[in-house]
């Protein structure tokens, strides 16, 4: 960065270039420099070029604090997640940063751990931290309290919609994608289907919506999702998937397909099945959601519902910026595309007795 002598009494002392230095070098007013910095159209091209050349020569960097005072915004948004050590959430964060950066926004991350107090801080917009808005995947916060906070905090939700709030919700169509999963499994001859990842305490969350989608589509095919073949998991992790197999016994081992609410659950289920001497997909097919990178590197590779992460991130950032600009209409639900990525874990079954 270029430096300017700050005082004739102390010629060795230097400081970063200021706006008045740019104005002096370019031969323009301070207001003209401000107009160029803020990309306003009321500056002649020749003058703009002269100011930009002076900015480059001096390596002038506008004051963040000054910009915040002028606009009332920090251009910083927070992505608040229960965990940041899962592959899907890492890919999601990458997509959010890529979508926010060209719009002049910086994404910072917070791992709430699913702790209610931490989630309340997120829903309140991190008071005192200069955050313009929050992209939020809540786990434990009181729904009514969060709905009230959404009237003040620009917020977009990823985990589940929040009726009666001012927070938008962006996701794939979880019910429709579950129906596609069932159609695929039915097409390969699977009829005894189980489900791992139910969340009955959170009826609007993806675990429950996907389960309902599986149940409804099975009914369309004249089949039933037996209650004994539906398993609740507190978290969508590999460990919980493997645990479901060890706890379920014949209830899941008697299936010919298991639908898992996430890829991590699916990978854990496959590990549990292998330990039980069950072949995948010969004996039991397995499918998940999220299309994490691991699905292509485990054996067998895992069939998965793949959300369009780029579209999800773009829509999320656009919706949040509208809220930051002052939109306080009731929360809206946005649906983004998805694809069913068919891999080895749902191949044709081998013949075996029921």
From TrEMBL:
GO terms for molecular function: DNA-binding transcription factor activity; transcription cis-regulatory region binding. Residues 17-71 form the HTH lacI-type domain. The keyword Transcription regulation applies. It comes from the Bacteria. Keywords: DNA-binding, Transcription, Transcription regulation. The keyword Transcription applies. SMART domains: HTH_LACI. InterPro entries: HTH_LacI, LacI/GalR-like_sensor, Lambda_DNA-bd_dom_sf, Peripla_BP_I. This is DNA-binding LacI/PurR family transcriptional regulator. It comes from Microlunatus parietis. The lineage of its organism: Bacteria, Bacillati, Actinomycetota, Actinomycetes, Propionibacteriales.
